[in-house]
Each structure stands twice: as structure tokens, then as C-alpha cells.
Amino acid sequence: xxxxxxxxxxxxxxxxxxxxxxxxxxxxxxxxxxxxxxxxxxxxxxxxxxxxxxxxxxxxxxxxxxxxxxxxxxxxxxxxxxxxxxxxxxxxxxxxxxxxxxxxxxxxxxxxxxxxxxxxxxxxxxxxxxxxxxxxxxxxxxxxxxxxxxxxxxxxxxxxxxxxxxxxxxxxxxxxxxxxxxxxxxxxxxxxxxxxxxxxxxxxxxxxxxxxxxxxxxxxxxxxxxxxxxxxxxxxxxxxxxxxxxxxxxxxxxxxxxxxxxxxxxxxxxxxxxxxxxxxxxxxxxxxxxxxxxxxxxxxxxxxxxxxxxxxxxxxxxxxxxxxxxxxxxxxxxxxxxxxxxxxxxxxxxxxxxxxxxxxxxxxxxxxxxxxxxxxxxxxxxxxxxxxxxxxxxxx
Length: 396
Hints:
By secondary structure, the chain is α+β, with helices and mostly antiparallel strands.
């Protein structure tokens, strides 16, 4: 569908925005240098270029001067590293007008694929504010690489853990608001969303384990205080305290393997699932773009969605590999619990030996027992949850 007739560039059009239907999907493909190999009919209609105008041209033919250079530095940095990137971009049409897109770019076997949709999510306005700040700083001499770092820092200031978190949040929001969602096959995405729910449950279980141990980390101190009050009779309790503290610290280290905010297994599994969702969403939009082109009687080069689909499968393979390490960590944690139970038993023996002395030992024993039982229960649930994650990942 032709949106508007092509007109000559004119100064009065420079600040005029091109509006286009929200269900439109603009698709393009380039070689590794960014030279255009293919553009979809919708891309050409919105950008006001002909196929001959675009064939063999650099993709920056549609770049708008209002875009921060740091954004394109980040785009190329990620693409050359084999990473996808999704972000908002202001483009300039052939007639001088502008139009905004939410662009999803990913590597193909011999080039790059870009899928662009109309931005409608709330994050669009916040991103434009960041871009305006970057443009101001670049005008003052900020180089592109520094501008890219400033972009990521601005996103972190707004609560995003990193650029990937921002990217996935924006993609989820934009994909979810599409008016033609009923025409997109979401079976794979539904399965990935189920995986996200399971990861969230696993993270909650590990957080519960961490909280439980946080509550009893002070018990060795209580034991040492008790040992000091009992003088020579407290020597055994003092030794018990040191043993418990050593084993508890070891256990906390194992828990950190799972829930460390940067390198923990569960956060890496979540990141892999997010990458899989990103790839599946891009693949779904490419398929929808192909359907739109076929309906309009245009042929789109086959196989454009193969790389996103491959990336989705690769991400699920990583989820499985990471998930297979969790049961072993859980078994190590359970062995530590058994060791701590032995310490708890020694505490009970000492309490019985001291008879009716009001020493607070029984309270310590009760708290440790409750903590150990709760941790053991959470570990069992964690192993079962990760097993579900692995089995469902294998199906994708």
C-alpha cells in the first residue's frame, strides 16, 4: 500500500513527521558493511524511496541528523560482536520528513537484518529524553564511544541493570502492543514466557534460602557469647561456634553461585531466556512481514527468519547447560546442611550436659533447626523447578 506520493524535499517539510499504520513492519537487509541488499515494500513506502534508490546504497541513507552518534556506535559494536540490538531510531525520508521506528537488528550469515515497527510504548518518550541529552553533549564535543557509554549509564540510572535489560523491556512492551498480534504465531513465545515464570520461581526460592541463612548468621556470635559466660565449661561451645560459622560461610558462598547479581547461574539463565525471547519476537515479526509482502504480491528473499530462529535455539541450549549445574550446587548445599545438622546435634548434647543452666542454648537450637528444615524444603523445590526448566527448554 502506497502511503503518500513522493514529493521533492523542501525546507517546510523538515520538521514534519510521517505517520504510518501501527501494524506496518519495515524490513531491510544489508551486507556486513551496511550496504542495502533488500528493502520491503512497506519500508520503501514509509521512507519515500524507490527500490532503485535504495539498492546498493548505505543504510545510513535514512539516518536522521537528530540521532546521537553514540547510538550508532553501540549498534555497530553489538552487531559486529554477533549480538542483536533493539532501540528507537529517528529516520529521515527522501522528502526531508522524519519518522520514528523501534528497530530490531540482528546478524545474518552474511550480513544484517533490520525489522522496524512503529513505537507506541511508554519507554519511547523516556528514550527520546536521553537522546536529547546525548545530542547536547555531542554538540559539546563528546565522541561517539563516550556517548554510547553515557547512554548505557543513563539507562542504568533509570533502573535498568544493563543495555540488554532495557532492550528486552522495550521489545516486550512494543511487541505486546501490536494491533495485529492475533496474526502472529506466539506458540514459541508462550513457551519462553512460561520459562521466565519458572526462572522467577527459582530466583524466589534461592532468595528465600539466602534470607533464612541471613537470619541465623548471627547464631555463632550468640554461641560465643554463651561460651564466654560459661568460662571453662564453654570451651566446647566455642569450638562448635567456629565450626558452624565456617560451614555457614561456605554455604553462603554456594548460594552466591546461584543468585549473584552479575555472574550467578540463575541471572545467566534469565539473560539467555531473554535472548531467546528477543530472537523469537524478531523471527515472528519477520514472518509477519513476509506475510504482508506476499499479500501485496511482493516476494521477500526466503530464509530471512532463519538466523533469529537459530539464535533462539542457541539461547535455549545455553539455558539447559546452565540449568544442569544447579542440581549439583543444590546437592553441595544439602551436604552442608547435613554438616550443620551435626553441629546442631552437638549443641543439643552440650545443652543436655549442662542440665538446668539457663543458658539460651535451647533457643539457638530451635532457630537452627527451623532454618535447616526450611532450607532443605526450598532446595527440593528448587531442584524440581530447574528440572522443569530443562525439560521445557529441550522442546523449543
